[in-house]
């Protein structure tokens, strides 16, 4: 039989993992892979946080929530060079507030006394989900700490902040948050939009915008270790109308060359020589993990060389900033 204190600690089964500001997208997605190694129940909170429900993983690892949080933090530092803060608590709100503290891994047991001891002294502006205007309004009424907000009657808080917001924030001040950790995966689509300075008839300007979009989408997919199955082009015209065409890629891909070729083909098939174009949006859909499909080796030596160069280009852009290395056509365009 478990002792009450041990049961309280094991009840703190929600981990809130928070990356340091400035963590790149590639590092963030790699961190999610590490979190999935700890527990399969991971909710993605882009751009730099995640929830991990370890209730079912405690017995498997024979460890406490604090142990699993420390393990995740150490693995992120050792394998990815990423510094994270981990808060463990009985629900989303308490765990998220614990991850804001000075400790690299902070645990709040699932015990009413422990939760109140943790929440009550905190400034009301640290309450999870509160906005700066709401915090200022509460402080102006003398409610400068989470404990004071929790002790205030619900009707009073609702008159200060409004019905729904007042009820929600007072519940969170009391440590009440019924939201479950809902497993979520990588996005199933992503897009790039380019708006022209003026409505254009210039097909070359549109092709340049398509190339910029293909470069950005390709780099994003490779950073997320995803591949796309379809590509859609939306063209918005000067009169406010728009047209969308979708093309299935010959094989799922994350390569800029494949996305560029498909985008050029869709645009050319529209025959818009006399249309005044205001904006274009390129969307890749049916995304899947990069390892879920094979790739066909072509006999085009120049293309194969470009594909082999992509990891180097991605590394240089990650080191020196987006666009440091880009296609010559875009470099010439910017210089001009």
Keywords:
single chain; 336 residues; alpha+beta; Alpha-Beta Plaits; Dna Ligase, domain 1; 2 domains; 5-stranded mixed β-sheet; 21% strand; globular
Descriptive account of the structure:
The protein has 336 residues and is of the alpha+beta class. The protein has helices at 4-10, 25-38, 58-61, 65-80, 92-98, 112-119, 132-140, 146-151, 154-161, 163-173, 203-224, 256-270, 301-320, 328-335; strands at 14-19, 42-45, 49-53, 84-89, 105-107, 189-200, 226-237, 242-253, 277-285, 288-289. A hairpin with a 4-residue loop joins strand 7 (226-237) and strand 8. Helix 2 packs antiparallel against helix 4. It is globular. The model has no long low-confidence stretch (mean pLDDT 85).
Walk me through the topology:
Layout: H1 4-10, E1 14-19, H2 25-38, E2 42-45, E3 49-53, H3 58-61, H4 65-80, E4 84-89, H5 92-98, E5 105-107, H6 112-119, H7 132-140, H8 146-151, H9 154-161, H10 163-173, E6 189-200, H11 203-224, E7 226-237, E8 242-253, H12 256-270, E9 277-285, E10 288-289, H13 301-320, H14 328-335
Parallel strand pairs: 4-5
Antiparallel strand pairs: 1-3, 1-4, 2-3, 6-9, 7-8, 7-9, 7-10
Q: Superfamily at the CATH H level of the largest domain?
A: Reverse transcriptase/Diguanylate cyclase domain
- Tell me the overall shape: globular
Enumerate how many helices there are, as a single number: 14
Number of extended strands: 10
Mean pLDDT: 85
Report the C-alpha radius of gyration, rounded.
25 Å
The residue ranges in which pLDDT falls below 50 over 5 or more consecutive positions are none
């Amino acid at each position: 039989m478990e002792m009450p204190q041990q049961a309280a600690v094991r009840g703190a089964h929600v981990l809130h993992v928070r990356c340091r500001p400035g963590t790149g997208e590639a590092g963030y997605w790699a961190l999610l892979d590490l979190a999935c190694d700890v527990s399969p129940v991971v909710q993605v909170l882009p751009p730099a946080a995640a929830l991990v429900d370890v209730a079912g993983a405690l017995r498997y690892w024979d460890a406490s929530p604090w142990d699993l949080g420390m393990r995740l933090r150490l693995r992120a530092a050792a394998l990815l060079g990423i510094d994270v803060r981990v808060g463990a608590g009985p629900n989303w709100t308490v765990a998220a507030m614990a991850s804001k503290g000075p400790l690299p891994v902070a645990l709040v047991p699932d015990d009413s006394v422990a939760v109140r001891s943790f929440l009550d002294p905190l400034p009301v502006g640290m309450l999870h989900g509160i906005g700066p205007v709401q915090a200022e309004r509460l402080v102006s009424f003398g409610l400068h700490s989470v404990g004071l907000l929790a002790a205030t009657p619900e009707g009073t808080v609702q008159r200060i902040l409004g019905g729904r917001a007042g009820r929600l924030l007072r519940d969170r001040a009391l440590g009440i948050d019924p939201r479950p950790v809902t497993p979520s995966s990588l996005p199933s689509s992503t897009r790039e939009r380019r708006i022209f300075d003026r409505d254009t008839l210039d097909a070359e300007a549109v092709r340049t915008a398509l190339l910029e979009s293909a470069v950005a989408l390709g780099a994003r997919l490779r950073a997320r270790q995803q591949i796309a199955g379809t590509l859609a082009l939306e063209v918005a015209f000067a009169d406010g109308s728009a047209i969308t065409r979708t093309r299935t890629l010959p094989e799922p891909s994350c390569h800029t060359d494949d996305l560029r070729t498909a985008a050029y083909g869709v645009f050319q098939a529209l025959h818009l020589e006399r249309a005044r174009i205001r904006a274009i949006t390129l969307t890749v859909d049916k995304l899947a993990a990069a390892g879920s499909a094979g790739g066909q080796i072509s006999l085009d030596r120049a293309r194969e060389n470009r594909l082999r160069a992509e990891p180097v280009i991605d590394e240089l852009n990650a080191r020196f900033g987006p666009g440091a290395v880009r296609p010559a056509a875009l470099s010439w365009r910017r210089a001009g």
